[in-house]
Amino acid sequence: MIRLDGVTKQYPDGTVAVDDLSLTAPDRAITVLVGPSGCGKTTTLRMINRMIEPTSGSVTIDGQDVLAMDAAQLRRGIGYVIQHGGLFPHHTVERNVAAVPLLLGTAKREAISRARELLELVGLDPALGRRYPSQLSGGQQQRVGVARALAADPPVMLMDEPFSAVDPVVREQLQDEFLRLQGELGKTIVMVTHDIDEAIKLGDHVAVLQVGGRIAQLARPAELLAHPADNFVADFLGRDRGYRALGFDSASVPLHDEPTIPLGATVAEAAARAGSDGWVLVVDDRRHPQGWARPTDLPGEGSIDERSLALGGTLARVGGPLRVALDAALSSPSRRGVVVDGDGALAGTCRATEVLSVIEARERPSDPGEHSAHAVH
Ligand SMILES: Nc1ncnc2c1ncn2[C@@H]1O[C@H](COP(=O)(O)OP(=O)(O)OP(=O)(O)O)[C@@H](O)[C@H]1O
pLDDT per residue over 134-185, tens digit each? Predict the structure, then answer.
């Protein structure tokens, strides 16, 4: 557990970057510091590994006062990831990843072989290890940065805008893989970002800071969205708060049996199975949804192949977030949201109005919940 107690940082020019800040980052969880530019996020993070010394207050890790520890040793025991990966340009990628273990005296062969394993762990081809950082894409460099921070297997990781230097699609991939990795590794992480969506996606706990380095609110993401402490937090959270909160609200929704046809069926067979709106769901031989077809749009004598499919909607999972279920219905060409089980096979379809009924029933817990069709838990 990382604990900051009444921590203040005043820079020599008089700027108070962090003002009497107290914060606990629990073990094996991701605590995110988020806030507008200049609110003291980076300063706070760097006081944990003593790259910046607090003016007053205390910082402890597992009860040990970091100010009483040797700063270089402390830093080697804490993974640190920054924007762009912060790699040494004149060292190969694997040498970069092995940097801290080598410093700590690990034999070169062992350190390099571990570096290759780590590259794989963060989703990179170990063959990239022999390249130099400039020969990698931005997203690859950031993965290397994460691999390097993990190399000494530190229980604590500090991450400063680790995913911000890449485009939104790569960023999303990196975030998803990072969450998967954290699920396996369970590090104690403090992360800084200026992006509230990233904070909400990645944080177990989110501290919203305001300029001057004070905490406006510290809460779990769902709580933040549902009950922002004040106008500053509400403004910072931005639009669609109510809708985004549904992303954290998982529930079963009424499922309906959906007639399907296999890929390769004739258009005539598809027409016979289609609903009154003309749409029919196409599945493969494992009953994994492939998309929607409307036989009336297709030449009568043909068969259903991939080219016959309309762009499908998003998929929801049984018992998953209500936001995803609602989106599956709204984005489906037939307005019937496709819901799959844990293996990706069709479980049924859901309707937007029924998802909304579930939402309304949950918001009034005293009301008996309505259920039609078969609800799956
Ligand atoms: N070395 C320094 N000397 C004086 N003031 C500083 C110094 N470093 C940072 N500051 C000031 O301290 C405040 C907090 O800076 P910090 O970098 O911690 O903010 P931040 O929230 O990480 O910002 P950003 O999101 O823009 O990176 C800012 O007003 C900044 O100008």
Answer: 999 888 998 899 899 888 888 999 999 988 877 777 788 888 888 988 998 8
**CB proximity list for 184: less than 8 A, separation 6 or greater:** none
Closest residue by CA, ligand 1 atom 14: 40
Contact 41 CB / ligand 1 (< 6 Å): yes
ipTM of the complex: 0.96
Decide whether any atom of ligand 1 lies within 6 Å of the 11 Cβ.
Answer: yes
Give yes or no for residue 377 having a pLDDT over 50.
no
Q: How far is CA 31 from the centre of its chain?
A: 13
Contact 346, 287 (CB under 8 A): yes
pLDDT at 83: 82
- pTM of the prediction? 0.80
Query: With bands split at pLDDT 50, 70 and 90, how would you rate the model's confidence at 23?
Result: very high
Mean pLDDT throughout 75-96? 88
> Measured from the CB, is residue 13 less than 6 Å from ligand 1?
yes
Rounded CA-CA distance 125/122 in Å is: 9
Looking at residue 280, what DSSP letter applies? E
Instruction: Find the 43 Cα to ligand 1 centroid distance in Å.
Output: 6
**Ordered DSSP codes for 79-144:** EEEEGGGG--TTS-HHHHHTHHHHHTT--HHHHHHHHHHHHHHTT--GGGGGS-GGGS-HHHHHHH
Ordered by where they begin, the domains of the chain are: 2-246 (3.40.50.300), 260-361 (3.10.580.10)
Burial, 257: exposed, middle or buried (Cβ in 10 Å; 0-12, 13-18, 19+)? exposed
The first and second tokens of residue 147, run together, are 């691999």
Is pLDDT above 50 for 362? yes
